[in-house]
Task: inverse folding
């Protein structure tokens, strides 16, 4: 789930929230260790542990701040667990979270429609 609120005059993002919700039924979740989280939000779950070794909510709070401060929907390279490049707050290695790939797919779809509707400013892709 990706929710963006945009100021109609400035076309800038004023609120952003991304979340992943587990399937409604345990049988629809392939990873046995995640079946206990059926119907739960990753963001709101107090027991879910993000495999990237950082809290899912920490990642998403950083994304929200990044977007509200004018950052690109697609340039997430400096956000927590966006890469396999080192430690997070000196607590050990953090690997890239699959959540970022899911987020980027949704962001692309939503962005294209919002641009077509003329309600959001242009957001650049990260430099290659």
Result:
């Amino acid at each position: 789930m990706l929710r963006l609120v945009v100021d109609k005059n400035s076309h800038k993002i004023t609120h952003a929230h991304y979340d992943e919700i587990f399937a409604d039924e345990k049988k629809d979740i392939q990873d046995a260790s995640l079946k206990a989280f059926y119907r739960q939000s990753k963001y709101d779950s107090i027991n879910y542990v993000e495999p990237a070794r950082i809290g899912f909510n920490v990642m998403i709070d950083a994304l929200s701040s990044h977007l509200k401060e004018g950052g690109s929907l697609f340039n997430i390279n400096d956000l927590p667990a966006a890469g396999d490049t080192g430690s997070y707050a000196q607590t050990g290695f953090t690997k890239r979270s699959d959540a970022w790939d899911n987020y980027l797919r949704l962001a692309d779809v939503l962005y294209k429609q919002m641009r077509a509707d003329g309600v959001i400013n242009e957001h650049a892709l990260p430099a290659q």
Summary: The mean pLDDT is 90. The first strand starts at residue 2 and ends at 6.
